[in-house]
Write a structure and sequence with these properties.
about 350 residues; 3 domains; 5-stranded parallel sheet; 4-stranded parallel sheet
Length: about 350
């Protein structure tokens, strides 16, 4: 579905990137694998030339990304075909099966500490560092944006080096293509930064979404009741069962919207930090769907209480901006929520 939407928006490069990402994450016998391979084969002529002397590997990073870092990575992927591999954790990475080239790994300090018994002869690490005293802005970085700029610098360097090598071998057209790719890397990242800087931070965002990330698709009674409870106040209620798809949706489609996120408790330790990085995720609520848990009332009470404060704050901000109509709408929603709270 996401691939189709990207195609409709004439973003074929990003659609191919998403297909490649799914191909890496899904099991070999997954029902979608043949369709993904067919799609990538059909679009092979549209894909940019891969780098032959280096492989870039990102491990456990994307859940730490904010919207800007995610946009930067998506753009770099669209320029580089399969030169960038992305994994959620190191257990899925098999360096032994990778081509005999230089391997540049971008990961967190925590994940790197678990990667033992690997040959570092052809591997170089770039780390998202938690300890500010170890940050050097060359191999260790304290934020995801700088780490993505380093990825861009390395991509640029290898495209230029391979272009020189291709020219010496007489592959002029291939060298020209790689020169063009090198010149586009920083240009497109600059455009992304300009697009983010143009977002009017003084404008008041009142579009609010309720999203539920489940461990499995299960439309249980509690979920239906929550959906019905808030349908006149938060009409947009989305359900995801895949955390990567949910993560991607929030940092792209909902980039300029406020999100109240309900997550199954199974994600509490492994995934919450990635969503907490997003400035548009207002609050996260953990929900235990086991039969013995009685979390419906507590979740509804906390969510309703937070929404009352949220809409009252929006109403006051709209008043300050002399937007009486929008302020009234916000205060009416807060009033309806107060009535709901009494009934809980």
């Amino acid at each position: 579905m996401i691939v189709d939407l990207l195609d409709q928006c004439k973003q074929e490069d990003k659609a191919n990137v998403y297909c490649q990402h799914l191909l890496q994450q899904l099991s070999p016998d997954h029902v979608l694998i043949p369709h993904l391979k067919e799609r990538l084969h059909m679009d092979a002529k549209l894909l940019p030339e891969s780098l032959r002397t280096v492989q870039f590997v990102l491990i456990g990073l994307t859940m730490h990304f904010n919207q800007l870092a995610s946009a930067m990575l998506t753009t770099l992927q669209s320029l580089t075909n399969d030169s960038i591999l992305i994994y959620n954790n190191s257990s899925k990475v098999d360096f032994e099966t990778m081509p005999d080239t230089a391997i540049l790994v971008f990961t967190t300090n925590q994940i790197m500490s678990t990667m033992t018994n690997i040959s570092e002869q052809h591997i170089k690490f770039f780390i998202l560092e938690e300890d500010n005293n170890r940050v050097d802005q060359r191999e260790r970085f304290d934020n995801c944006e700088d780490l993505m700029f380093q990825l861009a610098d390395e991509l640029y360097r290898y495209y230029k080096l391979e272009a020189i090598g291709d020219t010496k071998l007489g592959n002029i057209s291939l060298a020209k293509e790689k020169e063009e790719k090198a010149s586009r890397i920083h240009k497109e990242l600059k455009e992304i930064h300009q697009r983010f800087s143009r977002i009017d931070t003084t404008d008041i965002c009142t579009t609010t979404k309720l999203i539920w990330l489940q461990s499995t698709y299960n439309t249980n009674d509690d979920m239906i009741k929550i959906q019905n409870l808030f349908e006149n106040i938060l009409p947009s209620f989305l359900i995801f069962t895949n955390k990567e798809e949910c993560h991607y949706h929030i940092c792209t489609t909902e980039m300029n919207h406020i999100v109240f996120l309900i997550m199954d408790t199974i994600y509490k330790d492994s995934s919450a930090i990635g969503f907490q990085q997003f400035g548009n995720v207002k609050n996260i609520y953990f929900y235990d769907q086991s039969p013995s848990a009685k979390t419906y009332t507590n979740a509804c009470f906390q969510l309703t209480h937070d929404l009352i404060s949220y809409y009252n704050k929006l109403g006051n901000e709209c008043n300050a901006k002399k937007n009486a109509e929008k302020a009234k709408d916000m205060f009416v929603r807060a009033q309806k929520l107060c009535e709901l709270l009494i009934e809980l």
